[in-house]
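User: Round two. Same drill as before: sequence, then structure, for each protein.

Assistant: Same drill it is. First protein:
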Amino acid sequence: MTAPAPVPAPGGPPSAAAMRAYVTGLAAAVREAVLAARHRHGSRLVRGLSPGGDAQFGLDEVAEAAVWKYIAGHDLPVAVYSEDRGLQYHGADPAHLLVVDPIDGTRPAVAGLESATVSVAVARMAKRPRIADVEHALLMELRTGAYLYGDLTTPGITAYGYDHPVPALTRTTDPARMFWSLEFNGHPARLMTEAYGHLIDLSANTGGVFVFNSATWSISRLLTGQLDAYVDIGNRLLRDDPALLPEFERVGNGRVLHLFPYDIAAAVFLAERAGAVVTDAYGQPLGSTVLTDLDVGNQRSCVAASTPELHRALLASVRWKE
């Protein structure tokens, strides 16, 4: 379903059009492999843990293999940081770093649900590249192949495969009316409901509350106009009260499972270019997040909203620990 375009030629830096074709082709290759394997025996079995500590399913292995098959089949030298394989290199002296989450939303993917994407962000190679250094970003829906793409050379974002114009951000400002998603994976439910249970109660009937298990899907739904906000505050709760560490480790396979760079790199770039407001739970920009560091100190919280008014209301309404 992806639009045809030329792949980057060897020699010299790729043009913006060529890089778009490259990352779109990569995502399409992952999608094809995942769709072919999703019903195989073992696709939903946990095979181990990723370097960050998240459960690695059989379908994740298929997606990671597809990433490297595609990259090895092209002459473009790149460094690649992926969820399960960490930092690896293809070719000599790569000018670009690809930050790839082959399946953001593995649990929905293995369950056959729609809330899963292939996420690819591209930054210039540097000693400590950050989200602020991202130059190209792509989110492709696994089920449909529809995608959102943006780069620094073109204003806004490009959408392909949707049945309506995108971006289509809502104008919602009232938390009681918001359609929003939140995160529970690796987050103690008690702490989450203490912090924003009242917002769930407020909006569950006159708006909508969803748990998608995918940050990229949730943030991308702001761009399609299906959601008004996305909230993941676990990392702020831990930063505010380090004594909560054992509780987060208890529900995270002995690790802290907050937002990793590959979870949000592409989504933040696209959402900001589309006009959404995206910060951490302190209201600070996410651009300083290092793309290749999974340490707890580099993990993030996120509050994203379709309007500045709703974003401010969310930050003010969450019950932060004194």
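Second protein:
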Amino acid sequence: MTTVSTTLVIGATGATGSRTAAQLMAAGHRVKAASRQATPVAGAEPVPFDWYDSDTHAAALDGVDRVYLIPPLGDSDPAAIMLPFLRQARAVGVHRAVLLSSSAIPEGGPAVGTVHQALPDLFEEWAVLRPSWFMQNFTGTHAHARSIRDDGIIWTATESGRVGFVDAEDIAAVAVRSLTDEQAPNTDLVLTGPEALSHDDIATIITEVTGRPVVHRRLSYEQLRDRLTAEVPVEFAVMLAGMDRAIAGGAEDRITDTVQRLTGRPPRTFRALLEAPTSPPAMMTAGRTPGCPPPPASDPRHRTNRW
């Protein structure tokens, strides 16, 4: 263990990684910010890291004693490359690992569920964060946000199923507590916002806040699967479309008290996110004529565990 705690944040330029790094540094913790291009992150030590390039792993792990893990993008079998890295991390002195997974993927389930299952045997201190779908899917670069801007349409196979959409800032706040509290959670944590909303509800709230008419259009499971297959491997497309079908069946219709319990404050609502001074709702008002074909869902991680 290093004398001064240092956290390696993998995916430090991503949705939760960037926020986790920023919150860690704001609290006075040292951070190594890992990304493929070693992108500078104010206050952190940038370091190149690529899951598929093991030559980058040793330098990234040098001097760290805890790690925030964002799985590799779009990989249906991340355990094949993550587990060797985690064994290496343990060997060089990392004693706490916090893994970002998904509310839709249980321990031992597909994809990152295998890594979840292995984590307790690798580290005495650990946590698995299992957030619901990100609120930022509708405001950033995700396919939903693009189709809102371009067409005023949200396309899903979720029917009227509801989701406890969660703010990425709240996920990061839980990640920071899991990484830095004296006692690690040593469990998995399902993270949601304060209310479960359908995509019809999301469209209504965006319309009310931005003044731009937005509607939810429903695809069948097969239509979504085929669209995703154009962007990702077929087995991953099947899994992603299956998650939308699970939402339609009520699998994500829940809220938890995890954010409140670990951070001491309530999670943010979707409306509050859009109405915040730093929110980008203006980005959601520029577009072309509604009714154009939906764009492909090109950022699949936001559809699995919103990584």
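Confidence is low (pLDDT under 50) at residues 285-307.

User: Perfect.
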